[in-house]
Amino acid sequence: MSTVEFRRPDILEANRESRLDQTKLADEYLRDRLTETQQALDRICDYSRTLWGKLDEARHYLFDDVAGGEDGRTRAMLTSDSEWRAWVDLFAGVSSVLAGTTGDSGLGRSEATLVARSHGMEARNANARR
């Protein structure tokens, strides 16, 4: 089983088209504020994409290194049901954030629960903290 890839949410992409050409602003002050606002939005989106990328890297680390990955060649760092439950919650939370404002509809939790069960975590404990 491989981890599901999430598409970066559209909200992280600012509409890069210049509104200045479409807007007939007579007041130079308003034109300057519009330019400043667009530049600020561009910087926020750039930073947000960086954060999203780092969180995606963390999710892959949690899956591949902490939980042992899909191929079973890497030994999981987790040894007890309580550690696996904490990992399920963390992986589910990260997955939900990566999915964007609508969340992932429980996909990350389902994926994490399957991984935890494949490593022997008791099925009844997998969703204990839901």
Q: What is the succession of H and E elements?
A: HHHH
State the end-to-end distance: 23 Å
Unreliable segments (pLDDT under 50, ≥5 consecutive)? none
The radius of gyration computed from the alpha-carbon positions, rounded to a whole number of angstroms, is: 21 Å
What is the global morphology?
Answer: elongated
Please summarize the sheet with the most strands: none
Helix content: 55-70%
Tell me the total number of β-strands: 0
In terms of quaternary structure, the protein is single chain
Mean pLDDT level: 83
Report the portion of residues in β strands: under 5%
User: What class, by secondary structure content?
Assistant: mainly alpha
Give an overview of the whole structure:
With 130 residues, this protein is mainly α. It has helices spanning 28-66, 81-99, 107-118, 123-126. Helix 1 packs antiparallel against helix 2 and helix 2 runs antiparallel to helix 3 (107-118). The longest helix has 39 residues, at 28-66.
